[in-house]
Amino acid sequence: MAPLATPAASPSSQPAWSPLDFDQEAFRVAAAEGTFQRFARNGVRSLHVAVGGRGTSDTVRLGDDVVLTVVNCVLAESGRWRYETEEALVMLRASLCCDVAFHIEGAEPLVFNRPEVTLACFAQGRLQTVEIAGGVRQQGLVAVFRASTFAARYGLLLDDLPAMLREAVTGSAGVGRIASFPLDHRIASLVADTIDTRLDGEMKVVQYAGRLAELVAYTLDAMQHTPALRGGALHRRRDLELARAAMTRLERDYRRPPAFGELAREIGTNQNKLKTLFKAAFGVTMAEYCLERRMREAQQLLLEAALTIAQVAERVGYEHQSSFTAAFCGHVGMPPREYRRHRAPFSLPLGTAEDGKPGRR
Fold first, then answer.
1. 82-113: pLDDT as tens digits
2. What range defines the domain where residue 183 resides?
């Protein structure tokens, strides 16, 4: 689900397509307007320069259960498209930069507007309107999978998947984000190298498929190392409720968490018991969880490169930059300044007006 060549008509007048038919819609629109190049049997490149934009979008069908779009463009003006999920779907996005919103029937909007990796699910039978901002650089990989075949496509069993993804692929999840992570250097490099490939034709499709598999592996590995509720670890309902209540409060206030004794009294237990229940439920201590969330947000802010390091420190709850630097060094293995210098997001050149091909770095 990525931009086509031109903005669509109003959602009420446009037919709804399944996201898995996106490549067919790309061929249909591009052929009607003369704005595409077929670069492989199952691949189409949209040339946005033909309608006042810049850059390209490559859309490929990798079998009957996944469509991948490799995006490196700026639309001339904002576009809107309608889709209907006739079956449960999983979407994996790895964005260097983007400004996209999904308005989904009966659910909160899903907004993607910063460098990150995101795994999301769409329940069966939901209408959605996708809005893509014009005049804004869009760079990244967007894959839409048939949920029911996601595990088998990569030779995995359901038990190999994290619990939240398992619910999505079995159709028991609703609509929303399954997981989000800041881009680390290996994923940013993977995305940038995929966008900037020198391959063409069927070899490009082979490369795209391999890069997507690698991105899936990185994403699942990251999910395995993210705290999540361990369903069987606590057997008493009251204990589970206490652990969840603590997580809810810390998720909201991890930048400046309450004293754990105060938190325990607030939710109706004592500090020692709460510490034990939280570790049993989530596999990490409350202090470890708060530190992880602060450092993850700090990495994201450093990658976006819009704030000074002192401002990043303040944003994630540190009064002194020196304390933030020490904590960041201990958690990430390098100072914030070095992390920003070596892992800043890529900014790839857009295609040229002459041929629509991606520029070389």
1. 888 788 899 999 998 889 999 888 778 888 98
2. 19-224
